[in-house]
Amino acid sequence: MKLPPRTTPIRVNLAPMVDVTMCLLVFFMVTTKMVEMENSVIDLPIARSAKDVDKQKLGKRFVVNVRDARLEGGEGARYLVQDKEIHLLEVIERLHRERQVDPLVNCVIRADRSLPYEHVQAVMVGCARAGIQKVTFSAVSRDGGGG
Prior knowledge:
The structure is a single chain. The chain is of the alpha/beta class. It has a domain at 55-137: Nucleotidyltransferase, domain 5 (2-Layer Sandwich). It has three helices and five strands; from the N terminus they run αβββαβαβ. α2 (88-101) packs parallel to α3.
């Protein structure tokens, strides 16, 4: 009489699942930090035509946050790129570098609603000198959407 084959116990190897979980955790932590750096706290202007835009449709983007320094007791404007305050000339230099890396880069300007237009215009002139043709402005719609 023939004996049935011996069954081997089934073991679940959890090591690959833990590795994948850790990679996903690190990925989401890094991307969350990048989004926080891009979106400084700014009182955006209200616009009737403001629409929510899928950030993927914007393509490669370079975000310039322009804050009204008068709100913090200073003068003029504060320019922030990736949550670091830099001078306007450095913003323009970085716009040139971004344009060299990707000719289709989109400059997203986020400015305080109380900020005098001349400071936003300075960034727009920098975009023009760098050859950046895609410029997007962040605003909120009257119902609170947009961005």
